[in-house]
């Protein structure tokens, strides 16, 4: 399955059966081949794509609810739980730290 297709469809439900059907394989064959090819399961791969997109969108000012909808999570609570499990902090804390870091770089006077 093209990884590009997965990236372009993050907001959609990407179940194993859906992905296997897309490439005309049984679920078992798809799981085996995908895992051999990428080193991770399709579910883990999709979660990584979704959480990477979440980190990008947190800097845009969108609400967590909107980010959840754009990245394929049913609720902001579901997104928060996955984010915290992966990164060890809530999306809100990540956003605060990320924005604080950007502000510090922006407001640093340049030597001259």
TrEMBL record:
Name of this chain's protein: Helix-turn-helix domain-containing protein
UniProt keyword annotations, A-Z: DNA-binding, Transcription, Transcription regulation
Protein's UniProt keywords contain Transcription regulation: yes
Family matches, as Pfam families: HTH_18
Keyword Lipid biosynthesis: no
Residues that span the membrane, as ranges: none
Domain HTH araC/xylS-type: start-end pairs: 1-97
Signal sequence, start to end: none
InterPro entries per UniProt: AraC_XylS_family_regulators (IPR050204), Homeodomain-like_sf (IPR009057), HTH_AraC (IPR018060), HTH_AraC-typ_CS (IPR018062)
GO terms assigned for molecular function: DNA-binding transcription factor activity; sequence-specific DNA binding
Xref: SUPFAM superfamilies: Homeodomain-like (SSF46689)
């Amino acid at each position: 399955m093209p990884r590009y297709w997965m990236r372009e469809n993050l907001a959609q439900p990407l179940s194993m059966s859906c992905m296997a059907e897309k490439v005309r394989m049984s679920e078992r064959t798809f799981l085996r081949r995908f895992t051999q090819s990428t080193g991770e399961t399709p579910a883990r791969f999709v979660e990584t794509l979704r959480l990477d997109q979440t980190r990008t969108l947190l800097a845009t000012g969108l609400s967590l609810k909107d980010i959840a909808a754009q990245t394929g999570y049913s609720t902001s609570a579901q997104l928060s739980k996955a984010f915290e499990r992966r990164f060890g902090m809530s999306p809100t804390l990540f956003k605060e730290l990320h924005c604080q870091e950007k502000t510090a770089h922006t407001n640093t006077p340049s030597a001259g």
